[in-house]
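Sequence of EamA family transporter RarD (Rossellomorea vietnamensis).
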Amino acid sequence: MKGVAGIRTEEQSGIIYTAFSYFLWGILPIYWKWLDHVPADEILANRIFWSFWFMIVFLIVIKKFPEFWKMIKGMMKTKKKLAALATASLLISLNWFIYIWAVNTDQMVEASLGYYINPLVSVLLGVFILREKMTKAQVISFVLAAAGVLVLTASYGRFPWIAVGLAVSFGLYGLAKKLIKVDSDIGLTLETMATAPFALIYLIYLSSQGNISLFHLSAGTDWLLIAGGAVTAVPLLYFAKGAQRIPLYMVGFLQYIAPTLTLILGVFFYGEPFTQTHLVAFAFIWSALTIFSVSRMKRVKRRTKAQEKCA
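Predicted 3D structure, token representation.
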């Protein structure tokens, strides 16, 4: 058994790894901004293709490739898991595309909003798809968040589809992942494997049309497009390493690091507008997240105490 000091050390390292993963996700827009001269669809195709090969090499290095191969064989026999894999792959690809496009068209503020409301959208999906019950705190949180979205809709004169698209696609992706249940490194390899052939076909098509940037602009652009595979995988690997060492409610609090950094980058570094209307809308959403996070933390703590009494 681990002593108290050992548990604390493990939890501290878990906080560092998890916070670092969200920090990397939060500053990721800087990387995509370096590629804003490349169309978002080509960035996405490169990101999928090179992520797959990076993960294959990574699995070989950490000696998990046999486990990955075994998982593929098992999934080929289960149509439900194959469907879940295909769905997860399409959803994460859609999520990546919306995010890259939003960053490179100067809409990072709205993109950050998407990841703020994602936890609440996930709860809503759980209610409608998994028949889960909403607590009073969750109902209040959802109403406040909906009010924030409505304020933005009235201000823009259009529905904030980037924010909602990011939140819904990632929420549905999480649901699809529940049916696969594999380690995050193998999961990412499987997901990119499912879409890598389509990414390659699209890159070949762009090349045949003379519209491809890869190997046609500059060495810097080539390296950025290829390294997008590692940039995609590294935060996920740190997250997997950290999240398993800390309580779920702590992961919930740390997840707001990423959209907060993205919001700061958009407003203070890239000069995107943040009006009084934005402030009102975000105030509604931040209030919703505070109520949601505090209630979830209390619920997890009560459940943990109850389990300790029964043990």
